[in-house]
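User: Sequence in, structure out. Go.
Assistant: Echoing your sequence, followed by the C-alpha cells.
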Amino acid sequence: MGRIVRVQGLEGEVTIRLETDVGACVEAGRTLHVGREGSPPRPLRVQTSRLQGSRATVKFGGVQTREEAEALVGAAVTLPRSEAPPLPDGSFYQADLVGLRVETEAGEPLGDVVDIVVTGGADVLVVRRGAGEWLLPAARAFVVAVDLPGSRLVVRVPEGLADAEAV
C-alpha cells in the first residue's frame, strides 16, 4: 500500500508514499501493518492522517517522538486485503493483479504478472514468461479485461512487445 519515506515534525508523524489512490486506506481509526522485509509487521493504529496527492502524513498511536518515527522510515505499510475499502467497478488493488495469468484476446498465454512498477503515469505490469520478463503499461489501451475469478488478465499487446523471441 505504501512506504514510510520521512519523518514529519517532532511529535512522531511520518510521511507515507502511497501506492494506492484510495485515501480511505489511511483514514483515522484504521490499523495498518508496518514492517521491513524479513521481520513480522507491527500493527499501528492511525490517530490522524492528511492526504497530499500521492502522500499521506500519518500520526500512529504509540509513536510519540521524532526518534520513534525515524525508526519507521523505509518500512513498508500494508493493510490486510480483508480490511481494504471497497473499490468502484473497474478498479483493482495492485495486489489483486499480481499472480494473474496474462493472455491475449485470442487466449494465447503470455506469462504471469509478477510485480507492478509504480510510475508517475500508468503503472507498469512486470510479466514473467519462462526465464524472461517483459513490461506492459497498465493502461486501458492494453488491458482489455481483468477476470479475477478466472485468475487472468486479457491484454491487447502491440506488435513485437511480447514477441516469443524477446522473452
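User: And one key feature?
Assistant: The CA atoms of residues 137 and 167 lie 17 Å apart.
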